[in-house]
Amino acid sequence: MDRHILVVDDDPGLTEFLSEYLSDHGYGVTTAANGQAMRRVMGETDVDLIVLDLNLPEESGFDLAREIRAESRVPIIMLTGRDDETDRIVGLEIGADDYVSKPFSARELLARIGAVLRRAVVTVVSNEGPPTKTATFEGWRVDFAAGKLFDPDGDEVRLTTGEYRLLTVFLTHPNRVLSRDQILDMTGGESETFDRAIDIQVMRLRRKIEPVSDKPSFIETARGLGYIFRPSVEWR
Hints:
Elements: E1 4-8, H1 12-24, E2 28-32, H2 35-44, E3 49-53, H3 61-71, E4 76-80, H4 85-94, E5 98-101, H5 106-122, E6 134-137, E7 140-143, E8 148-150, E9 156-157, H6 161-172, H7 180-186, H8 195-209, E10 219-222, E11 226-229, E12 234-235
Parallel strand pairs: 1-2, 1-3, 3-4, 4-5
Antiparallel strand pairs: 6-7, 6-12, 7-8, 8-9, 10-11
């Protein structure tokens, strides 16, 4: 399943171009021309990142960014024709993750989207709240402030950095098919990493968290597609 990008801009030519360009590079894309349309999309679709124009009719991008941040940690890239340092600072202080000025290179925006999505997972910024949250599943607990995993008995289970990042990806995308390429991208792995390396990390993580490691019920294999993390995840 593609990561889903919401482009909020009132320029139909730009939104059509970005929709085609980002779709060609493996993203699901929805567009919205104003705040009302943005809210409707966010209420109906799981959005992984928002490209938000600063200059919108009726409600500014600043106002919409504040509204989004009051309810969600979904990454935001501000998009504007202004090349003003004050606007960039205000946008970042509101909670935007990056800032791109028009005119811009589509390749640059694509690179920034990929970087922001990777950073969002590696720093454990979930849509449920700030990175100091705790996630629980089937009695297991991950303390993101401490960077530790605890089993149902309360004992710490040590993870390698790769295993910790992999578990973070699964916790922030439960019940969703993730391809090996998506997992590689979201864990910040190098492009030279082979699919087999992802399979090995999954195998090692299964040995540490599955009730029966050779009959996985937490991390299921979606044959020909990738992996699915099945447990319900609660954030506190």
